[in-house]
Batch of 2 targets.
Target 1
Amino acid sequence: MTDLDTEVRIPPGVELRDGRLLDNVLGQTYPLSGSACAFLELMLQRRRLGEIATIVAERFGVEEETVATDLIQFVETLNSGHLLNVRGGSPTLRFRRWAGQLAYSVVTRSFPTRRVTRHAVSAHGLLPHLASISAILGKHTMPVWLLPAAGLLALGTLAKLELAAVLAPAILAVFLCLVVHEFGHALAIWREGAGSYVVTAGWNVAIVHSVARPAPLIHAGGPALAGAVGVCAVIVSLVAGSPQSASFAVPFLLNLAGLTVFSKDGRSLARAL
Amino acid sequence: MTRTFIKSALIGTVSFGVIAYCLVLVLAVLSQSGRVADVGLRLGPLEIFQVWVDESGHHFTIGTGIALVAALGGVVNGIGAVILARQRIRSMRAAH
């Protein structure tokens, strides 16, 4: 859901050149019409959608309302294709979006399509690559994951104080296993020598890559690495007799279910086999 | 299709086997620290798992049910992969 107050940005790795939109990471080219090119040129000047609609309507001699409708549709299409980042919007629109998504979830019992944000990852060496992925996850998804987890910890502590010492490592592990999971995918993509970027949408996160052929290792890399960390944590807990290490292992171990058809990664893996 | 089933069944068996086995180990460590005497799960005549702790440390038995969980997980994963493969073939045929 987008309105004319929304700010849009062309993400790093995407550029407008000779009337075409180039995705340099995935190596794809999208030819543009005259009005689409005008929209994107004005977006590069960091103008709001309302201003862009007014300018394009004057330039092409079309009604502003028609241009605004087309512009919003254009922005939403590019956003869903990871070619445009969208942020902001009026407070009324934010509330309407939140209420709409809540109603959608209740009625359809599924999650609605969320606004997607594309983040560039460093391609200068493996360590900077992994560091940039963890920075993105830390900034964009950690608060979303840690807030409900902290609420759960508070409830557990209220029920029994001793539970906090056992629950806290598991809650930390929920975020860490997200990072390790994405590291696993990133390592496999790195091994293939392919370009990639990170996409976040609310609490969802994904690594998008340019490997076109079926690559089972890329799909299996995330759950397998997280599962391996979980097994190591279980071994440590058995040797040291540490309940903290045991509870820390649980989210990592459950990540192994990501190798099966019950998860998105597992379904992609089954298709690639 | 048979190869897809075998590969996916193997992946499912290993994944669910490791998850179930390690979760029982986690339960053993947690019950030891919480001084819980006996924890177990039984379905009719089948013992899924049992963990018990005594004064000298923790002792646990892992029931045959863990193997059943792994085998069932493998079969379900294999069937799921075959269904996905069939759907893919059907959509490719429809596209042509």
Target 2
Amino acid sequence: MNSKNQKIIINIEGRNYPNWKIDLKNKLKTLKSNNLEIDAKNIDLSCKEISEIIEIANQFDCKIICFCSSSPKTIVSSQSLGYKSQFIIESSSKNTSDEHKKNLTFSKTHFHQGTVRSGEYLESPGDLLILGDVNPGAKVSAEGNIFIWGRLLGIAHAGSKGNSKAKISALQLSPVQLRIAKKVARGPKEKPQLGLAEQARIDSEEIIISPLETT
Amino acid sequence: MAIDTRVILICSGKGGVGKTTLTANLGISLARQGFTTAVLDADFGLRNLDLLLGLENRIVYTAQEVLEEECRLDQALVKHKQESNLSLLPAGNPRMLDWLKPDDMKRIVDMLKEQFNYVLIDCPAGVEDGFKNAMAATQEAIVVTNPEVSAVRDADRVIGLLNTNSIKPVQLVLNRVRPKMMANQEMLSIDDVTDILALPLLGLVLEDEQVIVSTNRGEPLTLNSVNSPAAKCYLNIAKRLQGEDIPLIDPAEEISGFGAKFRRLMQTKIF
């Protein structure tokens, strides 16, 4: 047996669910090692999808050592499940066809781990990924998107240099105020449903909040 | 000579949440457990720790004179009347607000460290110079807050500042808890507060009218009124501070004993 970690790349573009599972199983069958390093490329994986991958790996007696991805969402999901995760910055010659990537070219993603407390101000020239809460009185701002793995209770400003395609996502979205590009909105009065991640974006000149799409 | 002196900053951000009351009661409780304790009033603009301890009339020198070498440290320290393990060091003269710098604070605390097991620093309200001075000399902190939105917000700000100055551990005391209002959801619940502040809870202090009585008398509650609910809370906090595992009181249980508490209140003698 080879004791070295084996890196496998999962290819689930197109979201053909039954197929990617079979594909993954086939790949696992041919493996020589029990330790896996999963490279999810630039695919956004939710916690649920990652759990499914882990489950499949367990069926084949494989142990996942770490997840790599260039998608912040995948990184956050795998970290929240307690897996070591590595964020890979893609080279410019990547062949992604995601249309939002065309519109938003971000220089980098800024990570912040821990609570952003009242009076604190966090700013990023690219995307902003926060593992923790943004408390009331705190402000976070990014030229790109804002992802919050926690509660957004303060103020968030996405697309601070005028990018109206920027989005704000959080596990619990109950902000004091939301700003996207030049639009400002007050937070919703009612509390959101627990366990439902939400996303704010601009739709026909208004900031709207909708459940986070799992695609 | 004490070796492992714990220097604890007691702060809150917002004023009037009970920093000074906690400092005085914690000081008495720790002294009663046999630890030599110094309480340092860093709120030198509006000092009143001496009033709470009933020591106002005994103050001759302050930390200011000690630093200027006009007197020795032991001349400035005011020993408590009943609790000889407890000493108060008033920080300075309210008329001279600019004299204290973070380095001065460090020097005072270093001097106190040589003699005491515990140094409790009563921090002024706000996050300006007074707070920064007080923070300079401390290793750990207790943040006091009330179950009110404004107090929690200010505490959050203070915790952020403490974190960036790598003061550890920072623990939380939730003061003026009214079990009935919490049960009726008229007040922020304990979970609401700890969710936002994300700190280990060192203790709860129940709302108690006797606190006001004791403040006016200049006799901290923990000194003699063992029956007071708040005094018990303060004693428990002092024990937990030394790592004793004492369960937190459950506000829901306190309601059932409300009748008893009311009777006790009726018996309280005021002056």
